[in-house]
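Dear all,

This email documents one entry for the complex benchmark we are building for the journal club exercise. For each entry we list the sequence lines for every component of the assembly. Then comes the predicted three-dimensional structure of the complex as a token string, followed by one or two observations. Please use this as the template for your own entries, and keep the labels exactly as they appear.
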Amino acid sequence: MFGVMNASPVAVVGLGAWCDLDSPEEDSGGGAGTSFKVREFALLSDGREVTLLDDRGWTTSAPLGGTAGGQEVRMSVTHVVRNVYNVVLPDNAEETGEEHEWQRFAQRLREAGVAVTPDELRALPYRVILSDRLRSRLGQPS
Amino acid sequence: MGSWTVPAAAAACTPYVDGDYAHVSSGDVSAHGWWYRNNCPNTKTTVYIGLQEFYSDGSWRTKATGSAYVYPGGGSGNRATARHICESVVPAGWRSYVIVYIGNGASAYTAAQNLACRTLT
């Protein structure tokens, strides 16, 4: 027999979405709007990360920061986090009620050598992570 | 003495619009648009979206449109969708525009994405 008999199978321990600015810094203060990119990932028990979806993002007409009526205004973290959840919604979410592309995630993980079912993925914690520069632009501590 | 009151124009509110990047799934290219109320009332309004493909003459041509009468905030059931079938996997540029007319109105073009999706017309 060959192989490692006692090796534990790799498991998915968490899911998340990473979000960063996708606009040139000089354009994110208003005018043309602000763009953000989003990457969904799975965190494995061996510490690796598997990218599940990396073609999502959004553009908003809202300025990231600036002044309005003589007062400083800044986009809220709530707005950004809510939009992260909005852009990862499956195209058929209205029919299925699903919040994530579980089937596609399970398929992607199988391709990466991790056996997991959509139901198992649904039960995992999911968190949104904002990049340091985005948090800074939103007035949040890193 | 009572104070005089007269009719006055309501201060127009300023909404925001958001649109996700055009993306490919199940052989279609699609995009969604929604709105944020900012200082507008928490009411339904119509969100309009158009899906555009880039052409070699430098023009953006609208390939699909959609609209939805929705509450602010986006999410399932509160977004407008535009969708078009991919007739080829040759890469092309795609973007969307999103418009609302409530209050002062708002509009935005989403950042262009090069996708393995092209139309033949």
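Observations: Chain B touches chain A through 33 residues (CB under 8 Å). The mean pLDDT of chain B is 94.
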